[in-house]
Amino acid sequence: MSAAHVLSQHFERVLLVDRDGQDVAHERQGVPQVDHLHVLMRRGWLAFNELFQGIGEELIRAGAAEVDWGTNCYWVGRFGAFPRPPSDITSRLCSRRLLEKTVRARLASNPRIELVEHFEAETFRWDSSRSRLLAVKARDGRDLEASLFVDASGRNGPFRSKAVLEKVDARASYATCVVRIPHAERLPFRQAYVQVCAPHHLRGGGINPIEDGFHLAMMVGAGHEMPPGDKEGFLDYARSLRDPCVAQVLSEAEFVGPIRCFRRMAGTRVLRPAFQADNLVTVGDALCALNPVYGQGMTVSLLSALELGRQLAQEGRTSQKRFNELVAGPWLTAAGEDLRVPGCTLENVSVRERLTMRFNSILGDRVMLRATFDPDAHQRAMRVLHMVDPPSALLPLALPRVG
Ligand SMILES: Cc1cc2nc3c(=O)[nH]c(=O)nc-3n(C[C@H](O)[C@H](O)[C@H](O)COP(=O)(O)OP(=O)(O)OC[C@H]3O[C@@H](n4cnc5c(N)ncnc54)[C@H](O)[C@@H]3O)c2cc1C
């Protein structure tokens, strides 16, 4: 959707095709993760506001909760709870459905964007030289012609099954439920998170505010750990975490609605695409679906939309290369952590990449150790986790101090 918005600044007519209908209140087959926690990293929040002016205020009016990831967040990392000084790493939390609804309303009022619902893209039609695409074809036989195609069809998009993918599968899984917490304002934090830290701690969980005074409770598992989908099992799982913060909150919470599970969360990245053409770019999860535990996916998609706008404004054309570069860092970070999970399986990941991931993990541990005991190091680590600063900003924290 953010790519369509950007395209409308450069083209008179943009067709936004979706296999689902517009009504985000209902089941989303194309976005099965819609009911799970979707935090927007600080960089993503900034990009979101840059792309859609005033949308931050709109979300606040709709009830999105403000969070300072320093002082409001009780986060138990690998070496214990992080310090909680006030920080400039702030963003808003709300449900994924509210995010989508707000963006869709913007797109619906954009006269250059035409929403084509229930169009399940299946393949493309080529020109005679097979270097340019002419049309996208739907499963039901319809086809739509265009001069430029942006594939943002997500982690289950139709063209991925024909592509060669790199895959890192730590068998991560979620169970999520909307809860109401009595007197949430009296809690010593706004959000709490007990992180999965492989290889020893394969269970994690958290509690996060969303709109309308509700919270999303989530349990996370990796490797052989899989959070259950029934209430008793969910509460038992929360009690088994290495910090009691989430279980204590949940003991008083009212469970609203069903517990939803998500099991297919392997990280996958397109190594060789099914289609390559001068007028096709692949972005977002369609290009690189990260293990969502690291909360980077939407931020990467929003940054890709900004990059698309930059390419069209400055170069008048698109190039896949820069989108590939954009996902490289988040991919290494997420896959590097996944690699530590016992039984994690890899497909098509080069030896060089594996070594880089392992090396990053070692440096990452040094950073997290310092961030646990040093508020300044914590602030710097948060800026990188939230993709505000590049990972290189952490090197001084990761390298041994001399003298
Ligand atoms: C359980 C879970 C939790 C997550 N939590 C977070 C989080 O906390 N923070 C975060 O930043 N990210 C999170 N993510 C990742 C986030 O959901 C994605 O990174 C983000 O939605 C990617 O956006 P996208 O536009 O590339 O794809 P999507 O948002 O998946 O959108 C794809 C679109 O393509 C449509 N589509 C699919 N197939 C077709 C077809 N054949 N024809 C036409 N249309 C089609 C779909 O209907 C959908 O509208 C999570 C993911 C999962 C699985």
Automatic annotation (TrEMBL):
It comes from the Bacteria. Residues 1-315 form the FAD-binding domain. It holds the Pfam family FAD_binding_3. Transmembrane segments: none annotated. GO terms for molecular function: FAD binding. Coiled coil: none annotated. Gene3D superfamilies: FAD/NAD(P)-binding domain (3.50.50.60). This is FAD-binding domain-containing protein. The lineage of its organism: Bacteria, Pseudomonadati, Myxococcota, Myxococcia, Myxococcales.
